[in-house]
Predict the structure.
Amino acid sequence: MPEMRGPEPWWRSYFDDEFFRLHRDLFPEAESRIEVAAMRELLGLATDARVLDVPCGWGRHTLLLQEAAHDAFGADISLPLLERAAAATRNAGFPLHYAASDMRALPFRDASFDAVLNVFTSLGLFLSDEEDLRVLREAARVLRPGGALLLESMHRDEVMSDYAERDAWTLPDGTHVLVRRRFDPVTGVSHERLRWKSGDETGEKRHQLRLRTATELDRLLGGAGFAPPDYFGDWDGSPLERLSPRVIAVARKG
């Protein structure tokens, strides 16, 4: 009797060329440069530090880290986004250090990086503590002794203070985007439906994301073996407060 499989997880097909088209203008290079400068400062990165950006998406941070003379690697499960990252890196004349990989099972040796980056609420894609612990334990495995993980996430306390059930914007190319969201306070999962229209073309994407408090993130990091983290509320290094726009944790390998 053939094996019965459940539905494919949303994240396996969500991060495609259409995702890139709909999101690239939301992340201008100037903003990415501010974020990378903050990452380097918060982590105290040496010039030749070996850094893993996972998941790296289309490489907007990875490429800037290479530009700053770090030995930067990127890993992501999305082949379309990795192809874009590789093309941009090749055009810039830097080595191609990218791997197609699930962040729960990284194709790198133990203790091979000085720092690991996990940003854009990526610790939330799998919706469960068990799977996200696998992600954090993999990050710890590939870190050298004394190395650090920088984890950045939406801040559930702040999101819940003004949860946007409806949202809309127009991209520079004229594409109109409409978003509807629903939050489950028991599971902590935000359900989102995104629809767009560009001329006669229309489309829809759906995703789910686990939003966590700093308390929950702290418990996971400790469970993965990290030392007590330093917490920040934004890329400017400001302290984490109840209405900080994000949670940034810098956790050393214990």
User: Anything to note?
Assistant: The helical segments are 11-14, 17-23, 29-43, 60-67, 79-92, 129-142, 156-161, 214-223. The domain at 11-155+212-252 is CATH 3.40.50.150 (Rossmann fold). The chain has a mean pLDDT of 96. Residues 41 and 237 are 9 Å apart (CA to CA).
